[in-house]
């Protein structure tokens, strides 16, 4: 191996021990480039009395570094070059980072100052640079400038990688600025906002799902099912993907005159490997930001957690594609010394980060998330920790730690605020849980609410049930206030048992006779509040226990709004809802502006439809007075039907009956949400006034 190659590789590159060396990665770092020019000059133009190594005596790069640190004329020559090439205020910084950090067990700053003073007295210009030198050489500015100009382009290329990574972040910043302006206009400038139609744009771009129908429902087939974003979300993601691809290629400073850089193919390998690695680092903070609950951008834009989940998935995919490309190319470039290189700690931990991130992508596929969400979440956190730890040690060696710090800060901030929110909600509280529908396994809970905050429409909390065997798990629940809860200041929630923690709750309630108190931690509140009360009319469509979200909005509008028309529709499986949600419906029906449409869908398909409807009607009439108190006065604003409505037929009628600007609030099963969205897209131009769609949902 050539002396120049040995010195440049082992004393200047980023492959030293993670405990002793960090690449200087600040932008436009001319003192660092000057130091590298010296490293190349001294290592490439002169020969010193270096020890000889072969495969039987060398075990690591660190061992080679320690031996080279002991060659005093070599170190003294570098010090003389640093003194001549670097501005005085940066000299000690570069000596410390470029020389001492490579020789931590041998050199100190005081020792280098002594060696420099001695070198100025004994330095001699060699008559024949090809011979082995035993004395330091003085600074040769002419040859140093040549080396500097050859070294500089490569590090300028690294700077471009940082610039382009920041450009991707700037793209997202622009998206969020636009979202913030729209959200601000919707709340603070509503009188102007509602006059802006853009119905064509909203019909074909901002409202529909990517392929026209499925948005809340996953599209595709197992195991390749995936959530389908809306078209506007897809356009945002597409712009990001185009930028992420295009920015991999410009501004590469190919150099035919730089011998050590190799041919263009080898240079391209190095350029792409470095750029994809650095750009991967730059995306890590937003990947973690978009996944967090305490994301300030959700408050600024008013966008849902689901929207940021879409962006989280795509930014994480781009980040990991960059990382995989970076890892593969570097593995190829180091193929001749892979056994030695791959044993370095920074390489091992970089590999750990790449593998952990790749596993996160695989186990985050819809087929795993939807079927084993709790297992998915635990594994996601474990792999996330491995990813950050691996990234930390990798960047501690090669540089760009600022992106790791930012990632840790974002993740740490989210976790700290979660703890603060638990304290904000009163710490450990006890709620009263009641199994109100044994057939549908519906549970209703009244929970003390902190006096530090007020319940608002669309709010949800995460609950940690301390009485179970998985107290560390948190589960989201939409909250509202029943008429009784409004009196005593409690919060109310409904849950339907499926599996996991909700089924465990029902099991414990059944064993306790149907009701029991439970201790818990509450984390919240979360969720954006939409300005539904500012519209002239509002339409609420709920399915099942999605009633909690739509009721909270309707309740607020009834209490505080001057809306002209309020249409409240609930599609529910059985009429037992009249018993456990009767007080809430009574509250709405007391307002003459409200029209409640109740669709009961439980029909035995083995019998004829007419017979079933007759049987349902008989059962309805035979119910207890308590259960059917809301129907006893023949209310004109209550309509009970026994079939599943078609939203494509229902929504156009609602829009005709709603004067002025109209808000549509939807919360129900994925298929129902998609039906309403599609129906609105088909009929949004039927009204000249503005119609806005607000969906409260959680998608896998």
TrEMBL record:
SUPFAM superfamilies: Ferredoxin reductase-like, C-terminal NADP-linked domain. It is a multi-pass membrane protein. Keywords: Electron transport, FAD, Flavoprotein, Glycoprotein, Ion transport, Membrane, Oxidoreductase, Signal, Transmembrane, Transmembrane helix, Transport. Residues 1-18 form the signal peptide. GO terms for biological process: copper ion import; intracellular iron ion homeostasis; iron ion transport. One of its GO terms (molecular function) is ferric-chelate reductase activity. Residues 409-532 form the FAD-binding FR-type domain. Its main location: membrane. It is found in: Membrane. The chain crosses the membrane at residues 163-185, 235-254, 284-302, 314-333, 345-368, 375-394. One of its GO terms (cellular component) is plasma membrane. Gene3D superfamilies: Nucleotide-binding domain of ferredoxin-NADP reductase (FNR) module. Belongs to the ferric reductase (FRE) family. PANTHER family: FERRIC REDUCTASE TRANSMEMBRANE COMPONENT 3-RELATED, FERRIC/CUPRIC REDUCTASE TRANSMEMBRANE COMPONENT. This is YALI0E08096p.
């Amino acid at each position: 191996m050539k002396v120049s190659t040995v010195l440049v590789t082992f004393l200047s590159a980023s492959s030293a021990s993670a405990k002793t060396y960090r690449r200087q990665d600040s932008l436009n770092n001319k003192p660092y480039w000057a130091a590298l020019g010296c490293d190349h000059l001294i290592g490439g133009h002169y020969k010193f009395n270096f020890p000889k190594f072969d495969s039987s005596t060398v075990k690591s790069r660190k061992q080679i570094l320690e031996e080279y640190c002991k060659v005093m004329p070599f170190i003294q020559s570098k010090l003389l070059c640093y003194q001549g090439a670097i501005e005085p205020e940066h000299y000690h910084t570069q000596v410390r980072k470029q020389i001492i950090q490579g020789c931590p067990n041998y050199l100190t700053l005081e020792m280098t100052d002594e060696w420099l003073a001695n070198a100025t007295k004994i330095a001699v210009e060699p008559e024949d640079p090809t011979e082995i030198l035993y004395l330091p050489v003085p600074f040769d500015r002419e040859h140093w400038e040549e080396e500097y100009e050859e070294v500089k382009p490569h590090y300028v290329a690294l700077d471009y990688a940082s610039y382009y990574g920041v450009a991707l972040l700037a793209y997202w910043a622009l998206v969020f600025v636009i979202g913030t302006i729209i959200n601000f206009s919707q709340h603070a400038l509503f009188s102007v906002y509602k006059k802006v139609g853009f119905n064509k744009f909203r019909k074909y771009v901002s409202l529909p799902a990517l392929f026209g129908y499925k948005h809340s429902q996953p599209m595709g087939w197992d195991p390749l099912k995936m959530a389908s974003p809306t078209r506007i979300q897809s356009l945002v993601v597409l712009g990001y993907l185009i930028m992420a691809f295009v920015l991999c290629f410009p501004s590469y400073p190919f150099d035919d005159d730089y011998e050590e850089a190799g041919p263009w193919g080898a240079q391209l390998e190095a350029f792409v490997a470095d750029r994809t690695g650095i750009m991967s680092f730059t995306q890590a903070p937003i990947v973690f930001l978009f996944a967090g609950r305490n994301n300030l951008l959700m408050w600024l834009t008013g966008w849902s957690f689901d929207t940021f989940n879409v962006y989280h998935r795509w930014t994480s995919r781009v980040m990991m594609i960059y990382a995989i490309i970076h890892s593969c190319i570097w593995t190829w470039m180091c193929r001749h010394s892979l056994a030695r290189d791959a044993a370095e700690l920074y390489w091992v931990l970089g590999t750990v980060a790449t593998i952990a991130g790749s596993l996160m992508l695989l186990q985050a596929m819809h087929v795993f998330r939807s079927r084993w969400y709790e297992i998915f979440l635990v594994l996601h956190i474990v792999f996330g920790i491995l990813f950050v730890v691996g990234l930390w040690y990798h960047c501690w060696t090669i540089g760009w730690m600022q992106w790791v710090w930012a990632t840790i800060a974002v993740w740490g901030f989210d976790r700290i605020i979660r703890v603060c929110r638990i304290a904000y909600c009163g710490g450990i509280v006890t709620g009263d849980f009641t199994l109100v529908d044994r057939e549908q396994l519906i549970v209703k809970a009244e929970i003390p609410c902190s006096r530090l905050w007020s319940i608002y429409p669309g709010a949800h909390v995460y609950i940690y049930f301390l009485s179970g065997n998985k107290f560390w798990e948190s589960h989201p629940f939409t909250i509202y206030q029943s008429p009784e809860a409004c009196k005593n200041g409690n919060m109310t929630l409904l849950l339907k048992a499926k599996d996991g923690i909700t089924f465990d709750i029902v099991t414990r309630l059944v064993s306790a006779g149907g009701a029991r108190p439970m201790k818990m931690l509450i984390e919240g509140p979360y969720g954006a509040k939409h300005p539904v009360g500012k519209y002239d009319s509002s339409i609420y469509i709920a399915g099942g226990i999605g009633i909690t979200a739509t009721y909270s909005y309707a309740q607020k509008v009834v209490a505080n709004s001057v809306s002209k028309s309020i249409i409240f529709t609930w599609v529910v499986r059985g009429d037992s809802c009249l018993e456990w949600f009767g007080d809430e419906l009574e509250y709405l029906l007391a307002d003459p502006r409200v029209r409640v449409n109740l669709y009961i869908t439980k029909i035995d398909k083995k019998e004829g439809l007419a017979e079933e409807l007759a049987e349902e009607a008989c059962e309805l009439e035979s119910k207890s007075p308590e259960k059917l108190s809301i129907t006893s006065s023949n209310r004109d604003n209550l309509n009970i039907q026994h079939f599943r409505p078609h939203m494509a037929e229902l929504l156009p009628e609602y829009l005709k009956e709603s004067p002025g600007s109209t808000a549509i609030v939807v919360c129900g099963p994925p298929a129902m949400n998609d039906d309403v969205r599609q129906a609105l897209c088909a009929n949004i131009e039927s009204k000249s006034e503005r119609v806005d769609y607000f969906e409260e949902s959680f998608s896998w």
